[in-house]
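User: For a reading group we're discussing how well predicted structures match intuition. Take Metal-dependent hydrolase. Before you show the prediction, I'll give you the sequence so everyone sees exactly what went in.
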Amino acid sequence: MFLGHFAVGFASKKFAPRTNRGVLIAAPMFLDMLWPVFLLTGWERVRIDPGNTRFTPLDLEYFPWSHSLLMSVVWASAFGLLYYLTTRYRRGAVVIWIGVVSHWLLDWITHRPDMPLYPGSPLFGLGLWNHVGATLAVELTMFLLGIWLYVGVTRARDRVGRYGFLAYVVLLLVLYLGDRFSSPPANVAQDIAWPGIVAELVLIPWAWWFDQHRALRAEMGEAVI
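Assistant: Thanks. Here is the predicted 3D structure of Metal-dependent hydrolase, as structure tokens, for the group to look at:
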């Protein structure tokens, strides 16, 4: 899942309005931020296997340190605690914790049985990725709902808040659809791990940037959805 994780980050602003959008998107994406690093170190493995599922050509052979349910709870607790110690904003810390753990739940829905509960556990997955139309419908619906909630809570202060946000949304859609309908990658490091790291280094600061240029509607005396 890709857009679904970003949808959680957008929607989270409604429940933790004082937390910057960059942090809120980093939470549901955090496991995928760890994954390419762990691929490059050899701690985890993925194999390019066209036809593995109808939606993605990747065989996620081994990734318990970034994507098991147990480790997602560990990473969520570390992220949430660090955020709380830095900001003393309890609601934000709770929303961040939920955001990190939501990644496992959404991947469990989309993946074939490759999601571990803990390192060495049996593997689980409902296999939504075997149904292309359903996958697109679910992720796009989640994404639109997340954007709707975010826009219901915030309002652009200036052009950056408006057009920086709109460009971000368009880029995510282009990346999502482009990845789905492109040829399978040829090399794990060059086509998966390093592009994933670069994308994170762009998308998280970008979200932080445009969110700084958006005001909470409640602070402006407007009704919040």
